[in-house]
Write a structure and sequence with these properties.
By secondary structure, the chain is an all-alpha fold. The protein has one domain. Helix content is 61%, strand content 0%. The termini are far apart. The model has no long low-confidence stretch (mean pLDDT 85).
Length: 93
């Protein structure tokens, strides 16, 4: 739900910015470029968070190079082998 709230806040800001942009000549031609610049401005995320009472929580990253595989994860079980053998024998009839 917090993610949805953040998306809704960003969309609301974009639509407010679009309305302001269009108030000049009634067209939104060039708005995408303007919005892209706005989003990349320093402090954009903090302004949104403060205005809408949101908290940006950093996503935890995992270093995949330290992960170890699960032993025997690709080794078929006896039941899988039996099913495979049955399917193979049906196909050869």
């Amino acid at each position: 739900m917090r993610g949805q709230a953040k998306l809704a806040a960003i969309l609301a800001e974009r639509e407010d910015a679009r309305a302001s942009f269009m108030s000049k000549d009634g067209l939104d031609v060039g708005f995408s470029d303007k919005w892209r610049e706005t989003v990349q401005e320093e402090g954009f995320a903090e302004r949104i968070a403060n205005k809408y009472g949101l908290e940006w929580v950093p996503i935890e990253t995992v270093d995949a190079s330290t992960l170890k595989g699960v032993p025997d994860v690709n080794t078929p079980t006896q039941k899988e082998i039996e099913i495979g053998n049955r399917l193979t024998s049906r196909g050869s009839r």
